[in-house]
Design goal:
Elements lengths: L1 H8 L15 H11 L3 E2 L5 H7 L2 E2 L1 H6 L4 E5 L2 E5 L2 H12 L2 H4 L3 E4 L5 H11 L4 E5 L2 H11 L3 E5 L12 H6 L2 E4 L22 E4 L8 H8 L4 E2 L2 H16 L5 H10 L1
Parallel strand pairs: 2-4, 5-6, 5-8, 6-7, 8-9, 9-10
Antiparallel strand pairs: 1-3, 3-4
Helix pairs in contact: 1-12, 5-7, 5-11, 11-12
The structure holds NADP nicotinamide-adenine-dinucleotide phosphate.
The site of NADP nicotinamide-adenine-dinucleotide phosphate (NAP) has 27 residues, from helix 11.
Length: 258
């Protein structure tokens, strides 16, 4: 995706994956500084890089995590574009029909942090989080200063994610931040449980949309998979590094082509 944007912009540079074990990050940082490198980091390095950065952007400070970095005058700057990606994904689905209904977030892992902030910004009435490990969700909401009602996921007939049916029926927007459906097309909750006004955001992504998203759309619900968030966070990182807009269409095509 970044390679495609670099080619279209005619910029030199390489975007390469580095596999860095958690205990080797500190050794790598001086090398990145000497090279004046910028890039992205993912789990498990996002919070460690927020601690290591000399400067944090407001977005990185808000989420307490860094997914995008660069160097200025030899100092490490940490930024977070997951938040911008999450905001774009939520905005694309938001509608007046959602406004008065609860928002339901499934999962409390790495991707849930940016979503929880973006959802709380939009839904001042708070967010319901269904989590297999409720303490993880409680700690996350507390760290982010977000009003959240945490509901433990429990074995439920019909719901792979363990979400009580009543919560699904009440929700205006349902966000899947678990990996359910990533490999096997499983549905986190049955489409038939969704309210007629409900919209669905699945952070899992797949060419043409995940099976759950396609089933939601077939049942008349606005639904998106995680590609918009993925492309948007990448495009925002590109703009932060190079000061020019990324070609989102080229990035989208690269994601589609896998
Ligand atoms: P993560 O840090 O491993 O967190 C996963 C969360 O889902 C945890 O709260 C976990 O519960 C829960 N969970 C896992 N399996 C479950 C199940 N069977 N039932 C109920 N809860 C379950 O993962 P992540 O980084 O947040 O990623 C989640 C998904 O989002 C992945 O598919 C990933 O590819 C996708 N993602 C997309 C984007 C994007 O830009 N579109 C960005 C990041 C991630 P426990 O705490 O109990 O383990």
């Amino acid at each position: 995706m970044q390679g495609a944007a670099l080619r279209v912009a005619g910029l030199p540079g390489r975007y390469e994956a580095l596999d860095v074990p958690p205990d080797r990050l500190a050794d790598l940082l001086p090398r990145l500084r000497d090279e004046g490198a910028g890039g992205n980091v993912t789990i498990p390095h996002k919070e460690a890089l927020a601690r290591a950065a000399a400067h944090l952007t407001p977005e990185a400070r808000r989420v307490g995590a860094v997914n995008t970095f660069w160097h200025e005058s030899g100092e490490l700057v940490g930024h977070n574009t997951d938040l911008g990606g999450a905001r774009a994904a939520v905005e694309a689905l938001w509608s007046p029909g959602i406004e008065d209904r609860p928002v339901l977030l499934l999962g409390a892992g790495g991707s849930a942090a940016a979503l929880l902030v973006a959802l709380a910004e939009r839904r001042h009435g708070g967010v319901r989080v269904v989590a297999r490990t409720p303490t993880r969700a409680e700690r996350l909401a507390e760290r982010l200063g977000v009003a959240a009602v945490v509901v433990p996921a429990e074995a439920q007939a019909g719901s792979e994610a363990g979400v009580p049916r009543a919560l699904v029926e009440e929700a205006g927007l349902l966000v899947n931040a678990t990996p359910i459906g990533q490999r096997d097309g499983a549905e986190p909750v049955p489409v038939s449980w969704l309210a007629p006004e409900a919209a669905v955001l699945d952070l899992v992504y797949a060419s043409g949309g995940t099976a759950w998203v396609r089933a939601c759309r077939a049942a008349g619900r606005p639904a998106e998979d995680g590609r918009r968030m993925l492309v948007e966070q990448g495009a925002l990182a590109f703009a932060a590094w190079f000061g020019v807009e990324a070609d989102r269409d080229a990035m989208w095509t690269a994601v589609e082509d896998g």
